[in-house]
């Protein structure tokens, strides 16, 4: 399949930049549509949807953000802490606008190798509007299965 000019622009926007630091792809060399398809397959295998993931992530983000930097117990063994950052960051997808910076770090404190996910407003938008959980090794990638491992037994 031939890459369109829009595809080339998106790849450029997803790469490391002054706005996005290390970028949205990490070291993932796959095309964006392949990354998305792989994540959607993982969700389908466990009988879950992007909408369910967004709902769980949004709830955790808002509850953590409301803690104003204090550690918040989201569920037994699951904590969140919000780290405020000034400014805004543009979406790599044209027309999505800009999003407040700041991140909610959600951690499973009950595991020896505690799992964490980092949720941002932009990350939520990428998942909700584009089904894009970001590339492997991206700092802000949220593994689709991790959403449900950390947050779904508690709803």
Please provide a written account of the structure.
- Strands 1-2-5-6 form a 4-stranded antiparallel beta sheet.
- The protein is built from 5 helices and 6 strands; from the N terminus they run αααββββββαα.
- It is an alpha+beta fold and 155 residues long.
- β5 and β6 form a beta hairpin.
- The model has no long low-confidence stretch (mean pLDDT 89).
- The relative contact order is 0.20.
- It starts with a helix and ends with a helix.
- The radius of gyration is 16 Å and the shape is globular.
- It has one domain (5-154).
Secondary-structure map with pairings?
Blueprint: H1 5-14, H2 32-45, H3 50-65, E1 72-75, E2 78-83, E3 88-90, E4 98-100, E5 103-108, E6 116-119, H4 121-130, H5 144-151
Antiparallel strand pairs: 1-2, 2-5, 3-4, 5-6
Helix pairs in contact: 3-4, 3-5
- Total number of helices: 5
- pLDDT under 50 segments (min length 5)? none
- Return the string of H and E elements: HHHEEEEEEHH
Number of domains: 1
Keywords, separated by commas or semicolons:
155 residues; alpha+beta; four-stranded antiparallel β-sheet; 5 helices; 6 strands
Task: Give a brief description.
The chain has 155 residues and is α+β, with helices and mostly antiparallel strands.
